[in-house]
Protein backbone atom coordinates (compact mmCIF):
# COMPACT_ATOMS: atom_id res chain seq x y z
CA UNK A 1 0.00 0.00 0.00
CA UNK A 2 1.33 3.45 -0.89
CA UNK A 3 1.15 5.73 2.11
CA UNK A 4 -0.21 9.22 1.66
CA UNK A 5 1.61 10.53 4.73
CA UNK A 6 5.15 10.99 5.97
CA UNK A 7 5.56 11.54 9.72
CA UNK A 8 7.89 14.33 10.81
CA UNK A 9 7.90 14.34 14.63
CA UNK A 10 6.12 12.73 17.52
CA UNK A 11 3.69 9.89 17.08
CA UNK A 12 1.10 11.88 15.15
CA UNK A 13 2.09 15.48 15.90
CA UNK A 14 3.23 16.38 12.39
CA UNK A 15 2.85 14.77 8.99
CA UNK A 16 3.12 15.67 5.33
CA UNK A 17 1.27 14.66 2.22
CA UNK A 18 2.46 15.43 -1.30
CA UNK A 19 1.40 19.10 -0.99
CA UNK A 20 0.41 19.67 2.65
CA UNK A 21 2.11 19.95 6.02
CA UNK A 22 0.00 19.23 9.09
CA UNK A 23 0.92 20.18 12.65
CA UNK A 24 -0.81 19.28 15.87
CA UNK A 25 -3.19 21.91 17.23
CA UNK A 26 -1.57 24.01 19.97
CA UNK A 27 -2.84 26.89 22.15
CA UNK A 28 -0.97 29.45 20.02
CA UNK A 29 -3.19 28.56 17.03
CA UNK A 30 -6.15 30.43 18.56
CA UNK A 31 -5.78 33.47 16.30
CA UNK A 32 -5.62 31.27 13.20
CA UNK A 33 -8.77 29.42 14.26
CA UNK A 34 -10.50 32.73 15.06
CA UNK A 35 -9.73 34.04 11.58
CA UNK A 36 -11.09 30.86 9.98
CA UNK A 37 -14.20 30.84 12.18
CA UNK A 38 -14.99 34.42 11.07
CA UNK A 39 -14.86 33.53 7.36
CA UNK A 40 -18.46 33.03 6.17
CA UNK A 41 -17.37 31.12 3.03
CA UNK A 42 -15.33 28.59 5.00
CA UNK A 43 -17.96 28.19 7.71
CA UNK A 44 -20.94 27.95 5.33
CA UNK A 45 -21.19 24.14 5.76
CA UNK A 46 -19.65 24.01 9.24
CA UNK A 47 -22.38 25.53 11.35
CA UNK A 48 -21.80 29.17 10.46
CA UNK A 49 -19.50 31.89 11.72
CA UNK A 50 -18.41 31.47 15.35
CA UNK A 51 -17.88 34.05 18.06
CA UNK A 52 -14.54 34.52 19.82
CA UNK A 53 -15.97 32.63 22.82
CA UNK A 54 -17.15 29.72 20.63
CA UNK A 55 -13.72 29.54 18.99
CA UNK A 56 -11.97 29.52 22.39
CA UNK A 57 -14.25 26.69 23.50
CA UNK A 58 -13.57 24.83 20.22
CA UNK A 59 -9.83 25.16 20.81
CA UNK A 60 -10.09 23.86 24.38
CA UNK A 61 -12.26 20.92 23.31
CA UNK A 62 -9.79 19.96 20.58
CA UNK A 63 -6.73 20.38 22.82
CA UNK A 64 -8.41 18.07 25.35
CA UNK A 65 -9.03 15.53 22.58
CA UNK A 66 -5.28 15.50 21.83
CA UNK A 67 -4.50 15.03 25.53
CA UNK A 68 -7.05 12.21 25.87
CA UNK A 69 -6.40 10.30 22.62
CA UNK A 70 -3.04 11.35 21.11
CA UNK A 71 -4.61 12.53 17.85
CA UNK A 72 -7.12 15.16 16.81
CA UNK A 73 -7.11 18.40 14.83
CA UNK A 74 -4.17 19.52 12.71
CA UNK A 75 -3.40 23.00 11.37
CA UNK A 76 -2.62 22.86 7.65
CA UNK A 77 -0.12 24.73 5.53
CA UNK A 78 1.16 24.16 2.03
CA UNK A 79 4.13 21.83 2.27
CA UNK A 80 6.68 24.57 1.71
CA UNK A 81 4.56 27.46 2.99
CA UNK A 82 4.04 29.29 6.24
CA UNK A 83 0.47 30.54 5.69
CA UNK A 84 -2.37 28.81 7.54
CA UNK A 85 -4.62 27.42 4.78
CA UNK A 86 -6.95 25.11 6.66
CA UNK A 87 -7.46 22.41 9.22
CA UNK A 88 -7.90 18.66 9.13
CA UNK A 89 -8.92 16.16 11.73
CA UNK A 90 -9.43 12.70 13.08
CA UNK A 91 -11.42 12.82 16.30
CA UNK A 92 -14.04 11.03 18.31
CA UNK A 93 -17.65 11.92 17.61
CA UNK A 94 -20.84 10.47 19.06
CA UNK A 95 -23.39 9.63 16.38
CA UNK A 96 -26.76 8.28 17.49
CA UNK A 97 -25.23 7.26 20.82
CA UNK A 98 -22.28 5.43 19.22
CA UNK A 99 -18.65 6.52 19.59
CA UNK A 100 -17.12 6.95 16.14
CA UNK A 101 -13.93 8.49 14.78
CA UNK A 102 -14.54 11.11 12.13
CA UNK A 103 -12.32 12.66 9.53
CA UNK A 104 -12.90 16.18 8.30
CA UNK A 105 -11.34 19.29 6.86
CA UNK A 106 -11.83 22.96 6.13
CA UNK A 107 -9.83 25.12 3.73
CA UNK A 108 -9.88 28.78 2.83
CA UNK A 109 -11.63 29.45 -0.49
CA UNK A 110 -8.44 30.10 -2.55
CA UNK A 111 -7.45 26.48 -1.82
CA UNK A 112 -10.74 24.90 -2.94
CA UNK A 113 -10.89 22.89 -6.15
CA UNK A 114 -7.20 21.91 -6.08
CA UNK A 115 -7.57 18.37 -4.75
CA UNK A 116 -6.16 19.28 -1.33
CA UNK A 117 -9.23 18.02 0.54
CA UNK A 118 -9.00 14.69 -1.28
CA UNK A 119 -5.28 14.45 -0.51
CA UNK A 120 -5.75 15.31 3.15
CA UNK A 121 -8.65 12.87 3.56
CA UNK A 122 -6.53 10.09 2.06
CA UNK A 123 -3.76 10.92 4.53
CA UNK A 124 -6.15 10.94 7.49
CA UNK A 125 -7.61 7.60 6.41
CA UNK A 126 -4.11 6.11 6.17
CA UNK A 127 -3.39 7.32 9.72
CA UNK A 128 -6.71 5.92 10.97
CA UNK A 129 -6.11 2.49 9.45
CA UNK A 130 -2.34 2.07 9.64
CA UNK A 131 -1.40 3.97 12.81
CA UNK A 132 -4.59 3.86 14.89
CA UNK A 133 -5.72 0.42 13.73
CA UNK A 134 -9.31 1.49 13.16
CA UNK A 135 -11.79 -0.66 11.25
CA UNK A 136 -14.08 2.22 10.29
CA UNK A 137 -14.07 6.01 9.98
CA UNK A 138 -16.97 8.37 9.40
CA UNK A 139 -17.36 11.85 7.97
CA UNK A 140 -20.17 14.34 8.38
CA UNK A 141 -21.42 16.72 5.69
CA UNK A 142 -24.45 18.88 5.19
CA UNK A 143 -26.89 17.19 2.80
CA UNK A 144 -26.36 19.91 0.17
CA UNK A 145 -22.53 19.87 0.25
CA UNK A 146 -22.12 17.83 -2.92
CA UNK A 147 -18.46 18.83 -3.40
CA UNK A 148 -17.49 17.51 0.03
CA UNK A 149 -19.49 14.34 -0.56
CA UNK A 150 -17.55 13.84 -3.81
CA UNK A 151 -14.25 14.16 -1.91
CA UNK A 152 -15.41 11.50 0.54
CA UNK A 153 -16.59 9.16 -2.21
CA UNK A 154 -13.25 9.50 -4.05
CA UNK A 155 -11.62 8.27 -0.83
CA UNK A 156 -13.89 5.24 -0.52
CA UNK A 157 -16.46 6.55 1.96
CA UNK A 158 -20.12 5.87 1.15
CA UNK A 159 -23.33 7.44 2.39
CA UNK A 160 -24.45 5.66 5.56
CA UNK A 161 -27.49 7.59 6.80
CA UNK A 162 -29.00 10.98 7.53
CA UNK A 163 -29.03 12.17 11.15
CA UNK A 164 -29.31 15.28 13.29
CA UNK A 165 -25.94 16.86 14.10
CA UNK A 166 -25.66 19.94 16.30
CA UNK A 167 -29.28 20.82 15.59
CA UNK A 168 -29.14 20.44 11.80
CA UNK A 169 -29.76 17.64 9.36
CA UNK A 170 -26.50 15.99 8.32
CA UNK A 171 -25.27 13.18 6.09
CA UNK A 172 -23.00 10.52 7.59
CA UNK A 173 -20.48 8.85 5.28
CA UNK A 174 -18.46 5.78 6.30
CA UNK A 175 -15.58 3.59 5.21
CA UNK A 176 -15.09 0.10 6.63
CA UNK A 177 -11.91 -1.92 6.31
CA UNK A 178 -11.36 -5.55 6.95
CA UNK A 179 -8.17 -6.28 8.85
CA UNK A 180 -6.69 -8.36 6.03
CA UNK A 181 -7.81 -6.20 3.11
CA UNK A 182 -7.20 -2.72 1.76
CA UNK A 183 -9.99 -0.12 1.70
CA UNK A 184 -13.33 -1.49 0.60
Q: How would you portray this structure in words?
A:
There is one protein chain. By secondary structure, the protein is of the alpha+beta class. It has a six-stranded antiparallel beta sheet. The protein contains five helices and nine strands; from the N terminus they run βββαααβββαβαββ. It has one domain: Aminopeptidase (3-Layer(aba) Sandwich). It starts with 5 loop residues before the first strand and ends in an 8-residue tail after the last strand. The model has no long low-confidence stretch (mean pLDDT 87). The longest helix has 18 residues, at 52-69. The chain has helices spanning 30-37, 40-43, 52-69, 116-131, 146-154, and strands at residues 6-9, 14-16, 20-24, 73-78, 84-95, 98-107, 136-141, 158-165, 168-176. Helix 1 (30-37) crosses helix 3 (52-69). 30% of the residues lie in helices and 34% in strands.
Amino acid sequence: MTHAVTFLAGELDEFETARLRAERLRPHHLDELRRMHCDAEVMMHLGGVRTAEQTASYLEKNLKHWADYGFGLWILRERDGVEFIGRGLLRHLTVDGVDEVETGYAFYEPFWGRGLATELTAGCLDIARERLGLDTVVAVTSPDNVKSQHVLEKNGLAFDHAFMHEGSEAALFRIIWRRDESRL
